[in-house]
């Protein structure tokens, strides 16, 4: 099914498919202005490696392929649910595919989306900062996903992988994060271990920065909590060698990146990074679903899941850059909010019972942890049956 541009879009972190023509332009301008303006204008800007001639086709094929593979894998995992697809076309160039599953055996609701947008030239305000992009059409593509399982023992999960290019100016971004309600230590470790292996396949220093960057990005400042157990997050990765390009120069990710120094990765390596992590999603998540789906639950667990889903809503509406850009630039509201859970509840002044399984979530699993290296986590989880 094809619908006019702007009447259907995608979902997820900074996914361009959220937006209408006008809001797409505003979002891209804002993102590029903020990113390209980071460097000291008085300093000499390093020359980036030029992308390959077929960079756009390869980036598009990668994220479309990830969408196809992930949807096929999720349908097989669910066993009953099927993704319904709607497509949109952008007259100026590009389009997207939005795929949604509702009321499956495992997934109460989920979306896996692809978008591609392009324009003839960047606005003058950005070209002033990066004159080397003048005369070059810009291009952006990405895939994003959010899954909300029904069983409270199965975590919510999110991913997004994307690419931007304007002539010699280009970058990759992406990541995946896990949000459990009744967490198990082995699940968190498996999710992190799988993505670390994907990062290490490109360079052994990447995960050292991208793991704490994820903890930093998916953080609810007004609650003093991380959204979940994290995963990886990276953005604005090009060949200048700086791994951390986030918002907190005093944070752990910035300190680790500074200590490591430059890690000059070329286009091919960063392309491989997105591909490796995108392909790592199903192996990182499917075993968790298969292990937790048979677990019985009652009204207590369901009500706590719905309450904690409220935190997911709070993050997306208050802190997530993609959601904020979409809402502030007149994007299609239904598409922007598709990443939200289908059911959720709030409870004034709720406090989990001391020593309960619910209290363990906020005491341990919504704070940055060294999931592999801290053996004390086992001691804290064992009394609750929360290891495996």
Short description:
By secondary structure, this protein is an alpha+beta fold. The chain has helices at residues 21-36, 55-78, 124-129, 185-200, 206-217, 252-260, 267-292, 299-318, 321-328, 333-336, 357-365, 376-381; strands at 2-4, 84-89, 94-102, 107-119, 138-149, 156-166, 169-179, 219-220, 225-226, 230-237. Helix 4 runs antiparallel to helix 7 and helix 5 (206-217) packs antiparallel against helix 6 (252-260).
Question: Explain this structure to me?
Answer:
The chain is of the alpha+beta class and 388 residues long. It has a single domain (2-384), classed as Coproporphyrinogen III oxidase, aerobic (oxygen-dependent coproporphyrinogen oxidase, 3-Layer(aba) Sandwich). Helices cover 40% and strands 20% of the residues. The protein is built from twelve helices and ten strands. It is globular, with a radius of gyration of 20 Å.
Give the beta-strand count: 10
Number of helices: 12
Going by CATH, the homologous superfamily would be Coproporphyrinogen III oxidase, aerobic
Strand/helix succession:
EHHEEEHEEEHHEEEHHHHHHH
The CATH architecture classification is 3-Layer(aba) Sandwich
Largest sheet: 8 strands, mixed
Count of spatially separate domains: 1
Unreliable parts = 1-27, 33-43
What percent of the residues sit in helical stretches (DSSP H or I)? 40-55%
- What's the overall geometry? globular
Q: Report Rg.
A: 20 Å
Q: Mind telling me the CATH class? A: Alpha Beta
Q: Give the percentage of residues in beta strands.
A: 15-25%
Remind me, CATH topology?
A: oxygen-dependent coproporphyrinogen oxidase
- Kindly, what is the distance between the CA atoms of the first and last residues, rounded to a whole number of angstroms? 43 Å
Structural class: alpha+beta
Q: Average pLDDT across residues?
A: 87
Strand order, sheet with most strands? 1-2-3-4-5-6-7-10
Oligomer: single chain
């Amino acid at each position: 099914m094809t619908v006019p541009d702007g009447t259907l879009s995608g979902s997820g972190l900074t996914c361009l498919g959220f937006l209408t023509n006008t809001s797409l332009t505003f979002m891209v301008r804002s993102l590029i202005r903020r990113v390209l303006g980071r460097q000291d204008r008085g300093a000499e800007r390093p020359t980036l490696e030029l992308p390959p001639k077929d960079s756009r086709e390869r980036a598009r094929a990668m994220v479309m392929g990830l969408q196809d593979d992930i949807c096929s894998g999720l349908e097989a995992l669910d066993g009953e649910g099927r993704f319904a697809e709607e497509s949109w076309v952008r007259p100026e160039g590009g389009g997207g595919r939005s795929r949604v599953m509702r009321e499956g055996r495992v997934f109460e609701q989920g979306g896996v989306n692809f978008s591609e947008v392009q324009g003839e030239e960047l606005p003058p305000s950005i070209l002033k900062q990066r004159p080397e992009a003048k005369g070059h059409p810009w291009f952006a593509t990405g895939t994003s996903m959010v899954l909300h399982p029904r069983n409270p023992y199965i975590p919510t999960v999110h991913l997004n992988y994307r690419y931007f290019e304007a002539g010699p100016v280009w970058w990759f971004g992406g990541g995946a994060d896990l949000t459990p309600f009744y967490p198990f230590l082995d699940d968190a470790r498996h999710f992190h271990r799988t993505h670390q292996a994907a990062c290490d396949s490109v360079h052994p220093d990447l995960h050292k920065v991208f793991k704490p960057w994820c903890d930093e990005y998916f953080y609810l400042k007004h609650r003093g909590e991380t959204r979940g157990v994290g995963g990886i997050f990276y953005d604005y990765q090009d060949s200048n060698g700086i791994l951390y390009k986030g918002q907190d120069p005093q944070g752990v990710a910035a300190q680790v990146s500074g200590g490591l120094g430059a890690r000059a990765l070329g286009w091919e390596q960063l392309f491989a990074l997105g591909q490796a992590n995108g392909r790592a999603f199903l192996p990182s998540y499917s075993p968790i679903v298969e292990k937790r789906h048979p677990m019985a639950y009652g009204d207590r667990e369901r009500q706590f899941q719905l309450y904690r889903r409220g935190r997911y809503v709070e993050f997306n509406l208050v802190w997530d850059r993609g959601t904020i850009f979409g809402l502030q630039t007149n994007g299609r509201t239904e598409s922007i909010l598709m990443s939200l859970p289908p059911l959720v509840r709030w409870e004034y002044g709720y406090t989990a019972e001391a020593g309960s399984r619910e209290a363990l979530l906020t005491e341990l699993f919504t704070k940055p942890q060294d999931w592999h290296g801290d053996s004390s986590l086992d001691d804290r989880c064992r009394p609750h049956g929360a290891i495996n």
